[in-house]
TrEMBL record:
Transmembrane segments: none annotated. This is YbaK/aminoacyl-tRNA synthetase-associated domain-containing protein. InterPro entries: YbaK/aa-tRNA-synt-asso_dom_sf, YbaK/aa-tRNA-synth-assoc-dom. One of its GO terms (molecular function) is aminoacyl-tRNA deacylase activity. Residues 48-165 form the YbaK/aminoacyl-tRNA synthetase-associated domain. It holds the Pfam family tRNA_edit. It comes from the Bacteria.
Amino acid sequence: MVTWSVLGTLHAVPALDRPDLLADPVALALKALDPADAALVGVAEIDPTLADTAEFCAAHGSPLDGSANCVVVAGRRGEAVRYAACLVLATTRADVNGLVRRRLDARKASFAPMDDAVTITGMEYGGVTPIGLPEDWPVLVDAAVAAAPAVVIGSGVRHSKLALPGSLAARLPGVEVIGGLGR
């Protein structure tokens, strides 16, 4: 039995049952997963003004340490720009200038500008998720996320949230699990 209790007071349904609550790239990526894995992903509709993690957790009784944030990082070396996504527990911050910069072989790494992140991912700012990102991006997942029984993540849009086992987040396409990514 799948449980999405990490969503607190919200009622979730299988994500593929509600494509209207998913960004298009997220829906396509979920359809491409093994059906048994896709069935582990739940979605719940939320007030988009409560999409930011702290507000979401406070409003719905979801544990802060059961939420994971996905950030888009741009690494630069000369004129070349490489992107990656980092998924870390909401109680931590991604080690952008250490682990991520080295993984991207960049001289400088920083959070990608909002407009770039939105345009390249096809997702809404504040709803970016590791599901459905460009295939050539590394998706760096902190080991603490991978070990979590369940996590709440974005759905690609601000009016819903996804819940899934951390072990599934670790098996998503393009994922590399990295210990110490979240500090």
